[in-house]
Amino acid sequence: MNTTRQPVLLTRDEVIDLQKELGSSSLMGQTIVKLQAELEAYMALPVDVPGHGEAGGYEHNKHKDNYHYINLAGRLFLITEDEKYAKYAAQLLTTYADLYLQFDYHIQRNTNPPGRLFHQILNEHMWLMYASLGYSCISNWLSESERCHIVDNLFKPMLEMFTEKYDFDFDRIHNHGIWAVAAVGICGIAIGERKYLEMSVFGLNGDGETGGFLAQISQLFSPSGYYMEGPYYHRFAIRPLAVFAEVLERHMPDLNIYNYKDQVIKQTTQALLATAYPNGLFPALNDASQTMAITDMGVVVAVSMYFKRYGFDKNLLGMAEIQQQVWLHPCGLALSKAHEAEENLEPPFWPSVELNEGPNGDRGAQGFLRMQGDDKDISQLVMNYGQHGMGHGHFDTLGITFFSRGQEVLREYAFARWVNVEPKFGGRYLDENKSYARQTINHNAVTVDEMCQNSFDAKRADTVHGKPHFFLGEGTELQAMSAFADDHYPGTGMQRTVMMLKTDLLENPLLIDLYRLTSEKAHQYDYSHQYKGQIIRTNFEYQTNTELHTLGDDYGYQHLWNLARGEAKDTALVSWLQGNSYYSWLGTSAGADNEVIFTQTGANDPQFNLRHETSFMMRTTGKDMLFASVLETHGYFNEAVEASVDARGKLHNIEVIGHNEIGSVVRITGDNVCLTVMVSNQPSVTETTEHQIEINNTTYSWNGFLAVKQETK
Amino acid sequence: MNTTRQPVLLTRDEVIDLQKELGSSSLMGQTIVKLQAELEAYMALPVDVPGHGEAGGYEHNKHKDNYHYINLAGRLFLITEDEKYAKYAAQLLTTYADLYLQFDYHIQRNTNPPGRLFHQILNEHMWLMYASLGYSCISNWLSESERCHIVDNLFKPMLEMFTEKYDFDFDRIHNHGIWAVAAVGICGIAIGERKYLEMSVFGLNGDGETGGFLAQISQLFSPSGYYMEGPYYHRFAIRPLAVFAEVLERHMPDLNIYNYKDQVIKQTTQALLATAYPNGLFPALNDASQTMAITDMGVVVAVSMYFKRYGFDKNLLGMAEIQQQVWLHPCGLALSKAHEAEENLEPPFWPSVELNEGPNGDRGAQGFLRMQGDDKDISQLVMNYGQHGMGHGHFDTLGITFFSRGQEVLREYAFARWVNVEPKFGGRYLDENKSYARQTINHNAVTVDEMCQNSFDAKRADTVHGKPHFFLGEGTELQAMSAFADDHYPGTGMQRTVMMLKTDLLENPLLIDLYRLTSEKAHQYDYSHQYKGQIIRTNFEYQTNTELHTLGDDYGYQHLWNLARGEAKDTALVSWLQGNSYYSWLGTSAGADNEVIFTQTGANDPQFNLRHETSFMMRTTGKDMLFASVLETHGYFNEAVEASVDARGKLHNIEVIGHNEIGSVVRITGDNVCLTVMVSNQPSVTETTEHQIEINNTTYSWNGFLAVKQETK
User: Fold this and answer.
1) Is the pLDDT of residue A156 over 80?
2) Which segments within B80-173 are labelled E, that is strand?
3) Cβ A612–B611 below 8 Å, yes or no?
4) How many Cα atoms sit within 13 Å of B571 on the Cβ side?
5) How much of chain B, in percent, has pLDDT values that exceed 90?
């Protein structure tokens, strides 16, 4: 057997191991059954290799499906030894080889150069990577003439396009670049042209620094492994990264890729997984969909790879359980076996983690706190105090999201885009993505003077970042993170400290939020929360409007209908029902006037591009200001069985005792409980710094970052 | 063993049969495990027998839970023979006996008299029925003194209250009345006082006509078995009905209850089950929640009873699969065994059915059409052309709902009520139930002159009803139903004919709707559809409003924000995305002006009691008018995997060729297809009636109710 006619990712022995899973109830067994059923259903359709089409249109989808099933048919041929799969993959590849050079290049419509199949070569890279993997599984089964036809009329023209015609794009350090190098390298192995593998690893110059996989993985991630565009883009880059790493481990073992640069592949995979909510959804940081999850194909590959190459971690079993499949590969087999052997599968509960940003890890961070309640429910709190996220960035530094009882409660709107929905502007980003989705007011943060952070200037935003203050992620009863953002609004300093506190008196961990603003001039501050569900009660009177106007004219306010407002003299309580759970927010500011405004999106939306979502905000005016609030998760509602328990919650007051450059002191009271929360506002604080504040003849003192004193009444 | 100390619903042999299911993976085995876990969790809480409380409040819920677990503990004691369950039931019963006579009566707040535990005796009836069943399972285990204490201080006072103090209520023919008689009869058996059983069956007078179970079941349902308040209330009445029927089969076998009055119990159970959507949810006809389903306890009991007593029906197995449990009783065991033996479980696919209304079946009907697509997806179309539904009635005669691909597409808002949510007006019906939920405009129907049907006069509405025209429910490719409602708007005749058509050219059955109005005076007609999801495209220009006003001042219009409007000269297309599926509505009228208005609920809602839901309506003005429309189900969207297929649909035009007192002719065109739909408008039509209409020199002729001619282009 010719050594170039081997599957790129499978040895003979590994194929035999996978064959043993046929008919098993393991995740691998289920994966095979599922993928085989999908392939069979697709094979029942007529073979079609169409010409050009719109993104999201029929032709686009067909080319995508075709490469997916070439790849799948190749592997399933090896595992099942059923020749119909090989024939099918061969038929598709041969048809593409017949037609490829007859297709013209698309007309260029965006920054990405056009391909012959797709409107942008990114998709053509993906096509080549998958088609090459599939080809490698059947190449030994093909006749010499079939092989020549496919290689000469399909693969080589593609390789030349990517490395010669578009050479300027091949070495670009960018998440799309990983697809380019993975595709070219894998195709090179599949057709026995090792020079393409070398180019892919070391770049066109061969120096390993100006381009190629090594340069990509060295430069794209911060030391923490975080990818600055956020998990939605990270999970897209992780797919070729994991696949190509595994290819290199097999075909360039001396590279020792899994230990390269202090295990950067481990680091960045773990950083991605650690962002996910307990139910597997990724927080929609920056431009992102609300529904992207660890069930994404790339993350399935990454979890399997990580398990095999970096060892046992029970959280990976929990993730595999959510994914309900594994990578159809020996890496996936290892994970499947461990999953099968585990008696107590539990949802993933990754440790809290602060992921630093920037090439040197000194441009802020993204913070992820997680805490488990007595009933094992996991709450997660996310705060952005890092970088802007480039072209896809949202203007939400110090913005938070909060997740409890299986749902996002303080929510991200996510992008304004109906991805791949052709009648909605070809599935591309909509105008409302800029005018609403990226704006500060569309986040759980404070908007100053109805403006966007950095005046919606992305270039300016890319030059600044949040400043970590402290991060306490190890407690089982109290966790906290704090950060400053002093460069995002002119002349206004901001500090946000968020905590999760577990106390026997409450059902779930309590979210405590101290958002402090300082300025020499007076400003209007809008502290806003995006929520979903039905308002159940408030502790203040409000007036709903009998005609609706927008809340403002610009910076996202033009999309908000002003539904209702009320004066909340001291503590404002807003309680709502989302799904099966009640949530009660209690908030106040040190300001004289606390106004609460209820809004809904949908204004100035001439094509119904926006979803209709709701928010409420506390508005106050002043110079130095402390918004202090808590969010209590409580009760249970099930309409289907008409059950409702504890719709009111336990807390009823929150009060700002005082705040200055030393610290902030807040008191929270409720049924049988009084909490005094003291937080350091000193940037130079250490865990031993002594704090002492005298307010109204009472002295509050504590050591270190913060203290919470609980008195039971 | 004393014969009065037997379980009311179980023999010794039956207990042994149930014991064999312990540890089995059958539905019965799973039911036992699930109920046992629930009971154990409840037993871990402190025993509490509180005093009075609000509906939906802690005390109310506690009394409800207590009776549920007394009942469960009794049965599980017999099945598991674990004495801790008997002890627990005894402890609860004894505590109630200690306290019951010390509780005062509640203050009466509604038409239902108050009890000592609950604010209305309906709940006290439920309490007694369940507690008696539980008691009967442990009575032989109890000591004589315990039995006496429970009987004398708890059960007998309750029986006296129901049959003496509140004797006027006991004989009332009402769905609540079934609870009263079931409770009293079952308690009578449990304590060996057969006179109470006699009263319950034959009424206080003993005549079997003025009161008692036989009178209830004879008078509450129409000949078709339909219950006029709709499935939401029907499923509540079916619980004591099924339980008490099974009791009577065992304790009054001569009654032959299951064959009583031409098997009225079979008839009414089947009528209830036949209303359900394929996913098990009940259409929210009249005041009802959107989430009530066959998983409701009463329906679980009814499905098991029906299977055991009326024989095998594969649809019951499909329903049991949705329920994922059976009645913990020999009836449930029979169903569980059949479910286990069935190799091809499929979702229930009940035949289409027209359920007549009124004591003689001549007061209109409710129509339910079901059709299966090639992929086995079941579409369901529901039309109300029956009675008003009394105090819970909605003013929606000729209103429809439509279900496809697992979701309600043309939707019911359901009731305006947050049931059992105490801060929302004690969980009771809200003002918005009258001002919005019951109004005609809040349905998929035509509203004339911005008024409600019958001017929102429930008494008047109770005197009129829809008139069935024809019902063709047996076709696999074409089904239709048609009805008149001439008494609902002054001087205006209405006829609606709805069809489902399956054609190879479309993915799913097509909904075709011909809504005809006749009047000697000009009126404004609003043909409205309640939808959920995102507008994807229209074929006409529309203008969204930059400030929002209500669409009107009364009859529900005061709750609608006027979001946008557009002129649709000929055919209007409105396409939206709901969940994973696209829907395209194409509509026209024979009117000169077709205006389309988009609305959202939420106006004049000072306490955020309404959900924010969307609708669109075609508005036109004229005398005689035909609204002709189709609803196409098409395509697929999955944001999580970023897939979108066929977002546009295949149909692009619908045209009214003509309509008069003989018939209506409509043409529908699309990619490669032209359909001509001809419908009889003659009330006296039979299946052989000849129709001939000449329009613009073309003659359209057909025999019978309707014809659909398909030409492939």
Assistant:
1) yes
2) none
3) no
4) 22
5) 91
- Is the reported ipTM for this assembly greater than 0.90? yes
Q: Does A86 touch chain B (CB under 8 A)?
A: no
Give CA–CA dist A170/B235, Å, rounded: 66
SS3 B97: helix
Query: Minimal CA–CA distance to A707: which of A689, A673, A680, A670?
Result: A680
- Note which residues in 644-673 of chain A have CB less than 8 A from chain B: 644-645, 647-648
Please answer whether residues B615 and B444 qualify as being in contact, where contact means their C-beta atoms are separated by less than 8 angstroms. no
* pLDDT tens for each residue of A239-288: 999 999 999 999 999 999 999 999 999 999 999 999 999 999 999 999 99
Predicted confidence (pLDDT) per residue in A673-693, tens digit: 999 999 999 999 999 999 999
Closest listed residue to residue A455, CA positions, set A531, A365, A388, A384: A388
Structure tokens given for A301: 């590959």
- CA B100, distance to chain mean position in Å, is 36
Contact between A192 and A4 under an 8 Å Cβ cutoff? The reply is yes
Residue in B with minimal Cα distance to A65: B643
Q: Which residue in B has a C-alpha nearest to residue A292's C-alpha?
A: B640
Q: Alpha carbon of B647 to those of A42, A56, A443, B404, B408: distances in Å? A: 20, 10, 31, 16, 19
CA separation for the pair B178, B160 (Å, rounded): 17
> CB–CB of A289 and B421 under 8 A?
no
Please give, rounded to a whole number of angstroms, the shortest distance from the CA of A644 to a CA of chain B.
Answer: 6
Q: State which residue of chain A sits closest to B291, comparing Cα positions.
A: A640
Best to test chain B binding among A58, A610, A642, A646 (most B CBs inside 10 Å): A642
Q: Tokens 């997680």, residue?
A: A370
SS3 percent helix, strand, coil of chain B, rounded to 5, is 35, 25, 40
The count of residues in chain B is: 713
Beta strand A523-531 pairing with A614-622: antiparallel
Phi/psi-derived region of residue A108, left when phi > 0, alpha when psi is between -120 and 50, beta in every other case? beta
Alpha-carbon Rg of chain B, whole angstroms? 27
Q: Identify the CA nearest to A535 among candidates B279, B424, B662, B438.
A: B424
Could you give the C-alpha distances from B676 to B397, B537, B693, B706, B712, in angstroms and in order? 27, 26, 13, 11, 11
Using an 8 Å CB-CB cutoff, list chain B residues near A536. 418, 421, 423-424
> What's the pLDDT at B1?
40
pLDDT of residue B205: 94
State how far the Cα of B117 lies from the Cα of B64, in Å rounded to an integer.
Answer: 10
Alpha-carbon gap, residue B443 to B400, rounded angstroms: 8
Q: Who contacts A300 (Cβ-Cβ below 8 Å, separation ≥6)?
A: A294, A323, A325, A326, A327, A332
| Closest by Cα among B415, B344, B353 to B380 | B353
Q: Name the one residue in this structure whose structure tokens are 């003291």.
A: A678
pTM for the model stands at 0.96
pLDDT tops 50 at residue A1? no
Residue found by looking up tokens 């339910």 in the block: B368
Task: Count CB atoms within 10 A of the CB of residue A11.
Answer: 12
Q: Which two tokens stand for residue B410?
A: 């043309």
Report the alpha-carbon distance of residue B166 to residue B183 in Å, rounded. 14
B703 torsion bin: left (phi>0), alpha (psi -120 to 50), beta (else): beta
Q: A479 phi and psi, to 5 degrees?
A: -130, 155
Give the chain A residue whose CA is nearest to the CA of B610.
Answer: A534
Q: Which of A419, A550, A644 lies at the smallest CB-CB distance from B421?
A: A644
Q: Answer whether B201's CB lies under 8 Å from B255's CB.
A: yes
Closest CA to A65 of A90, A47, A91, A84: A47
Q: Which amino acid is at B460?
A: R
Q: CB distance B642–A289 less than 8 Å?
A: yes
Whether A604 has its CB under 8 Å from any CB of chain B: the answer is: yes
pLDDT band at A3 (very low <50, low <70, confident <90, very high): low
